[in-house]
Design a protein that fits this description.
This protein is mainly beta and 169 residues long. The protein has one helix and ten strands; from the N terminus they run H-E-E-E-E-E-E-E-E-E-E. It has one domain: Sandwich (Immunoglobulin-like). The strands form three sheets. It has a five-stranded mixed beta sheet with strand order 2-10-9-5-6, with no helix packed on it.
């Protein structure tokens, strides 16, 4: 009879342990970010650009997660690498075949001023990004940026992501 009770008590614990619900030991598993009070995200272990994991500053766009960046806080002189990924369930329509990129600085009055905007002629073709598809990778050199808040925006509806530039220490 005691063996039967031991099995009944230990069986649920073993099932949870096997399912990964219980972990014994230190939690430094590959691919898991230990949150230690920092504001930077841990990049995913992929072969492409880092995948954004943690929102660290407020976002204006409900589709901010469509702009895939490794973090939201950079220092003057950093190169920002990012791409647009359709995280939704329907086709994302853009005004151009390759989505046009805008970088805007947040001004003291709460409005944005374009500091990078498309310069060439607009392609006469509507671009479509199916669900799960991503654009080419974009890069922005921040060596001429002043510290402050900025926004990356695309010509695809309301797709934008805010980020911050800080002084290099």
């Amino acid at each position: 009879m005691p063996l039967k009770w031991a099995i009944l008590i230990l069986l649920p614990i073993l099932i949870q342990f096997n399912a990964g619900c219980l972990f014994i030991g230190n939690n430094n598993l590959p691919g898991s970010a230990a949150l230690n009070g920092t504001t930077q995200a841990t990049p995913a272990e992929t072969s492409g650009p880092a995948v954004h994991r943690i929102i660290t500053i407020p976002q204006d766009s409900p589709q901010a997660d469509y702009v895939i960046m490794d973090r939201d806080i950079y220092q003057v002189g950093d190169t920002i690498r990012f791409y647009l990924m359709n995280e939704g369930g329907s086709v994302l329509e853009c005004a151009n075949f390759y989505p046009d990129l805008y970088v805007r600085k947040l001004l003291d009055n709460g409005t944005y001023q374009d500091i990078i905007r498309p310069t060439g002629p607009v392609m006469p073709m509507i671009g479509q990004l199916p669900p799960g598809a991503k654009s080419k990778q974009y890069t922005v050199d921040t060596s001429t940026f002043e510290p402050g808040y900025y926004q990356i925006a695309f010509d695809c509806g309301n797709v934008s992501r805010n980020f911050e530039i800080r002084d290099r220490y």
